[in-house]
Fold this sequence. Notes:
5-stranded parallel β-sheet; 8 strands
Amino acid sequence: MTKVALLGTGIMGAGMARSMARAGLDVTVWNRSADKARALDLPVADDPASAARDADVVVTMLFGFESVAQVMTEALPAMRPDAIWLQTSTIGVDETAALAELATKQNVSFVDAPVLGTRQPAENGQLTVLAGGRRDERLEPVLDAISAKVVWVGERPGDGHRLKLVMNAWVLTLTAGTAQSVALAEGLGLDPKLFLELISGGPLDAGYAQLKGKNMLADEFTPAFALSGATKDAGLIREAAAEVGVATDLAAALERLFGASGNQDDDMAAVIRALRAAQQ
């Protein structure tokens, strides 16, 4: 049986842990806020090193580069030399290279594997994994448990993140664009439901626009993909674009909008608040 240490049991990590346990993997979890880890009814480690010590695969799902680097600086020396680090947090391309170097110094195999999906796909084991690194059959039980699809983008650590930023640029743009049309309809004295009905089923429709649009109309912002993550990812997209000479105007605007949308623990659909405020 594959032994897995999952470090980080927030919205995504909790769902991934349940999916792995449901698939029959031997899962130990750790989280900085221990209550979130204990709520999963799985073995809970006292610290990252204890979680990682006997694991075949160590999975990180933490918020941002600094958190991942800090936690793994503690965990890596405790890992077995034949263990694999599966890094699923969205942290950026240069940051991924830095983590790969950290793993190399400890002679630990590293796979860059950010995921596409939110709370429900994580709970259902239906994420899409964008993997960068060498394929290793030992990862298959873990990847099978958490995902509906695995795309091996390339062998360079960071390749997974390159595609993840491309995809998130689309997701953030679609969400903000939906919010703009909803807010504009409201400002013009129209029922914004008309907008969602008009695009429904046609070439301009998107399931995500319908989902987030309905959340906006209902002011329902229970987090599936939190504003904090959207703001962070928009900043990573802006930085990556600047590095390769792509215009950063749109990414910078998205970063500003998501960051100005109130409680960052709310769902990213709450970006509607920033656009509604702009009407006043």
